[in-house]
Amino acid sequence: MGRGRQKAKATKVARKLKYFSPETDYAALERELTSASSATDADDEIDYEELASKYGVDDDEDWDDSGTSSR
After folding, report:
1. Composition bias, kind Acidic residues: at what positions (predicted)?
2. Do residues 9 and 17 touch, judged by C-beta distance below 8 A?
3. pLDDT tens profile 17-40
């Protein structure tokens, strides 16, 4: 296919996408967003002591701004 035909086809596709407006199911969107937000509410409670013990982090270590231990 020549460059002119290829560009014309790309322009046609771009125009279709630009002016395409599908019907939006707002009820389904609301259900999806509501269920996603309720799932993240339970994840907000992080047990940092459990994570520290799991990864062997000592809270007494001094950390500098670069994230490395100064010891």
Report:
1. 41-50
2. no
3. 999 888 889 999 899 999 876 655
Q: 56-70: per-residue pLDDT in tens?
A: 877 665 666 666 655
Q: How far is CA 7 from the centre of its chain?
A: 34
Distance CA 66, CA 49 (A): 23
Give the DSSP letter of residue 16. H
Q: What angle do CA 1, 18, 7 make, to 5 degrees?
A: 15
Whether this prediction's pTM lies above 0.85 is answered by no
What range does the domain containing 31 cover? 1-35
Looking at the 3D structure of the chain, how many domains does it have?
1
- Return the closest-CA partner of residue 61 out of 69, 50, 51: 69
